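Lab notebook, page 48
Experiment: co-folding of the full assembly
Goal: obtain a model of how the components sit together before planning crosslinking
Operator: M.T.
Materials (sequences as entered):
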Amino acid sequence: MPRAPRPEAVDRLLEHCGRFSPILGREPTDPQSLLLDITGLAHLFDGEPALAGEMVSDFRRLGMNIRLALADTIGAAWAAAKYAFVPSAFPLPARLSSPKSPSPFVLLPPGQSPAFLRPLPTEALRLPEETVRLLAELGIFRIGQLEALPRDELLSRFGPLLAGRMDQAFGRLDEPVRACPLPPHFAVDWSAEHPISRREMIEAAVEHLVGRTAALLAAGNRGALQLECRLECLPSQAAQQTIRLSIGLFRPTAAAAHLFQLAQLQLERLRIPAPVTGVRVQATLTAPLEPRRQAVLFDFGDEGASVPLRQLAALVERLSSRLGPGAVLGVRLRPEAQPELSWHYDPLLERGQRRRGRQAEAPADLPPRPLRLLPRPIVLAVTQLCGASVSANSAAATAAPPIIYGPPLWFHFAGQQHHVAQVWGPERIETGWWRGRPVGRDYFRVETIAGRRFWLFRRLRDEKWFLQGMFE
Amino acid sequence: MENRPNRTCCLEELRRRIARFEMPRASGPPPVTSGCLPLDQFLPEKGFRRGTLIEWLSAGEGTGACTLALLTARQVCQNGGVLVVMDRRRDFCPPAAIRFGIRPEQCVVVRAESAADNDWAMDQVLRSPAVATVLAWPEKIDGRTFRRWQLAVEQGGGLGLLLRPATARGDPSWADVRLLVEPRRSAARSHTRLLRMIFLRCRGGTDGHCVDVELDDETYRVYPVAGRDQHVAQGASPRSG
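Observation: model returned without errors.
Model output:
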């Protein structure tokens, strides 16, 4: 069963459709449908087929397949989008697209809507289920059958809705697209009279556009959380035509100087392969300029209230801008026994933008872990094993069954041979069976005769020894 | 005939004068304890000065130098601010630091790809007043970068904890304190580990002191080892820059 789309996702798609029509709406009876009023716009796209083709391609670039129909009325277009693509027992005119047809959209020429609607089922009129069922009980399954009935009879038996839907679909009753208010658009473009290749000029253009975008944001009392800067370059075979810079921010800001500073951190490392013909700066994600948003990233509660969060946010933004969002990370503990999976890093910028709640308190009884934990344990060349040499002061030792082989007496690591003097353990970890890769290990803390401490484990499956950490 | 001044007295007098020159201005922020009382006793202000770099040198892995640095970081973070870990090696284990008493939301990990990016990020982090302390493992630092970091940390007012290999001992340093950490074999059936810290450099203090401590693995408390404090004549690294 197809999952209902999230309203905010549909809103975003609706906003995306703004490049095809200024009047965009949603069908109240069907949250998955978007309505576009394209009256008088088709010639801008070289006709309706070209417009429809461009829309389908555009959505495919976003990774989505859509059902698109163009018709005289909303009712006919909705019915075509719903029923012209599915194999059905209802014969459709041969010239219309079908799943077998290569055309990914349905185009009903002017005046052809009634002929298209007649063979369709009554559900295609956007009727409530109850009305459809009642009609079926009376032996009425198709719109053509309904059309043959006297209008007065329909009104008296089914009320004004059914007759109204018929009139809307057949174009006898006007039904405008109820335009949805779209979020304001914060983007500015600039086209160069002559392609420019001097870096200072490109930076100056970006600075100017960032300033204008910031002014738009400030006028709307909003701040950018994500700023995209696109440089259009002269076509060349060796390089891509468009260069995109993406700037993430932790807190919404409309400060032009700060935004340009972050853009400059990326610009100065950018290789511009061809002269630039145009620049576009757009705030792709915005939020209200609220002071309370500044406290989202590092919520220290009352104890850390003195932390200068503004400076911290600025630091995170600067680091993320130059090193990438994936290089500036926050820590979240996970309830995992396997040491290398017991925490999770997430980019701090995303944490700020998602507005997650306050973190859970760290558990008080964390087991001892080394400060350096190798992501991939190193197989040890073991020369000799201790015989049942488990330290008596280990709590785990008393609970665990007797060990046949203790940890290595000698092992090689980093070009040195280490002689084990003391051992604590084992700490048995058996987990991961639900991931399909079960893990069974006996961990030992060992101290060498030089006083160095390491974290070793024996893999239970094959009795191999590994080094996983150092108690630095 | 004029008496020639005693050579030892002369050196002592010169040492005192140099120490006076090196002493920071009294108007600076209050020092922060290192989290290790036996170490504090040998620091001229009984703690590390904020806005400075501290170097922890050790030979090889598993020596305990990072544990001692984290003791300091824990103390600094208690008053708010974040701990930034420059984890270019990608092997820092946050649960270990959290067990130490650093809260997860106080821990920021920076993973730069290149050494140049790491140096730049380090400069930015040290310069930020929001950062309480920075933990980093720089292997080689050229003199200019080191000086830049020192100026940055002075501006930010945090504490830069640099964990470096013992081979850096002969390199010039812009750190306030440079310590060499040497692990010792602990007593049998003991949870504590024995560590020796040697003052290679201490601004405003005396170099060459040697402090032996016992560190409890479970509680992270530090105990002095009685009668072990010594003074080693050699070992101080020359300051240049």
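Interpretation: Chain A is about 30% helix and 30% strand.
Next step: discuss with group before ordering constructs.
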